[in-house]
Amino acid sequence: MSIIEVNNLTKYYGKSRGIVDVSFAEEEGEIFGFIGPNGAGKSTTIRLLLSLIHPTSGSAKVFGKDVTTHGSEIRRDIGYLPSEVYYYEGMKVKDLLKYSASFFDCDCTQRIKELSDIMELEMNRRISDLSYGNKKKVGIVQGLLHSPKLLFLDEPTAGLDPLMQRKFFDMIRQENARGVTVFFSSHILGEVQRLCNRVGIIREGKIVEISDIRTLQQNNYKKVNVTAEGLSPAIFDFPGVTNLQTEDSAMHFFFKGDINLVLQKISSVQVTDLTIEEPTLEEIFMHYYE
Amino acid sequence: MSANIYTHEFRARLKSVIIWSLSLAFLILFFFSLFPVFSDQAAVMNEFLARYPAELRAAFGLDKMDLATVLGFFSFTLVFVELCLAIQAGNYGFGLVSIEESELTADFLLSKPVSRTQILTSKLLAAVSSLLITELVVWASAFVGILLFRSGHDYSTSTLILLLLSLLVFQLVFMSIGLVVSLLVRRLRSVTPYGLGLAFGAYVLNGFSGVFGDVKLELLTPFKHLDPSFIILHASYDTPLLFLDLAVIVVALVASYWLYTRRDIPAVS
């Protein structure tokens, strides 16, 4: 059974576009990366799945239940970390976490302690006194304290220093190893690449590609760097070569197709250095946006 | 209904409830402490008031009040009590759900495993409890005030109870109107201007109703529907107008549930 199943989901805010005809599915135990620039519809999708907003058309199921009719039941097993965290300013951290835990049938005291120790959270401070990064940490503990089966992370790393980011990623990996499914939205491709099994790319409200992260990297493009004497762009002027750039005696380009073609061409010159590598997600991504 | 939301909401409002209740108790007792002077020199007082233009007296409802009687005097106090209760209840109504959106905590609350109906019910019950506490303090202050300062004058207990009960209707009307209006607008940035506007608007409308005589503007305002001088004069409510208020409460609350369960919660950024 798919944990998330989205069918032709469309959301318009009045006349302005949220998302259009979005369909995808996420299987149990996956870490699904949802990438796209700001305003592409990532948050809209997550907010629809949490029934914070209601779809214009189409439907979505989480744990096999419709989000518009079974919202509160579904949310029992969901953890949500929004991109911007805001809590009741006058409350102390520990009271907020207690309040948050009171919505779930669990004694979460032990877990709150574990999580806040990892995140180095000061429990007696008021929310209003916390820095942005510290609020974010409260958000992380708050999203995980009830041991959810599905995690929605909406650009979660903004505001966290690199050390905390690493801790956070380790935590997500641990959760995932325990069987937690993760829906990870981000515009930072590096972190998606580090964490996710599969990615969906969203652009202007529409899904442009859903693919395994490996296939995305392998089947698509190779990044070729050649350094040689007497190189001229004419050598690589054949179908499949894109983004050809010359830098002194070196050339870089992307290639899609039979790699032997490139090798034959290269063997005709005296090569000093050669690398053929998989492009980063960033580079693939730029391609979708051209 | 979720006990945790109820408790959270109730606590968040506790300070405001205490301040409103103490202020009202002070107001009522202060007014009553002046009653012995008024009742002793009723003739002088009435002569003094007669010098004001009739329109002005009408605007304050003084033309229908006998300040020399316990309830007549109390109904004069009641105008101010009503105004305060209207502001308080209006604020609670306007802020009930909009505050989660303006302080950006709606995402926190609504991503929890509770339905919108449960949230609204818990919040409403917490607000009504807060209003009831204030109401009880007003009742107590009225009885204490009368006990201390009536200086031998008689009054009808049943009419007094009618007057005090009308305040409950009053609170509920302003709370439910505030709530439904807050759900009709896209985003309410600040609650107090709306609460003050609604209460003073309704109050002023009632004042004008006396001035313009025939114009039926007053039918729009609960200050007229539950006019203390009418209640004292007839020892009963103006039943059709009371039902109008009750209908307003029911319609506003039903509409609020309908709107809130369908509402798109605006994103933070």
Could you explain the architecture of this structure?
Helices cover 32% and strands 32% of the residues of chain A. Chain A has 10 helices and 14 strands. Chain A is elongated. Chain B has one domain (3-261). Helices cover 77% and strands 0% of the residues of chain B. The model of chain B has no long low-confidence stretch (mean pLDDT 88). Chain B is mainly alpha-helical and 269 residues long.
Topology, please?
The complex is a heterodimer of chains A (290) and B (269).
Chain A: E1 2-13, E2 16-27, E3 31-35, H1 42-49, E4 57-62, E5 65-66, H2 71-75, E6 78-81, H3 93-101, H4 109-118, H5 132-144, E7 150-154, H6 162-177, E8 181-186, H7 189-195, E9 198-203, E10 206-212, H8 213-218, E11 222-228, E12 241-247, E13 250-255, H9 259-267, E14 271-277, H10 281-289
Parallel strand pairs in A: 3-8, 3-9, 6-7, 7-8
Antiparallel strand pairs in A: 1-2, 1-4, 4-5, 9-10, 11-13, 11-14, 12-13
Chain B: H1 3-33, H2 35-40, H3 42-50, H4 54-59, H5 70-102, H6 106-110, H7 116-149, H8 157-184, H9 192-212, H10 222-225, H11 228-234, H12 239-262
Helix pairs in contact in B: 1-5, 1-7, 5-7, 5-8, 5-9, 7-8, 8-12
Rg value of chain B: 20 Å
Task: Please work out how many helical segments of chain A DSSP would assign.
Answer: 10
Class computed from helices, strands and strand pairing of chain A: alpha/beta
Roughly how much helix do the residues of chain A carry, as a percent range?
Answer: 25-40%
| Span of the ends, CA to CA of chain B | 30 Å
| Order of H and E elements of chain B | HHHHHHHHHHHH
Largest interface: A-B, 31 and 23 residues
Strand content of chain B: under 5%
Low-confidence stretches of chain B: none
Helix-strand pattern of chain A, N to C?
A: EEEHEEHEHHHEHEHEEHEEEHEH
Main sheet: strands, sense, barrel of chain A = 6 strands, mixed
Question: Residue ranges of chain A: pLDDT <50 for 5 or more in a row?
Answer: none
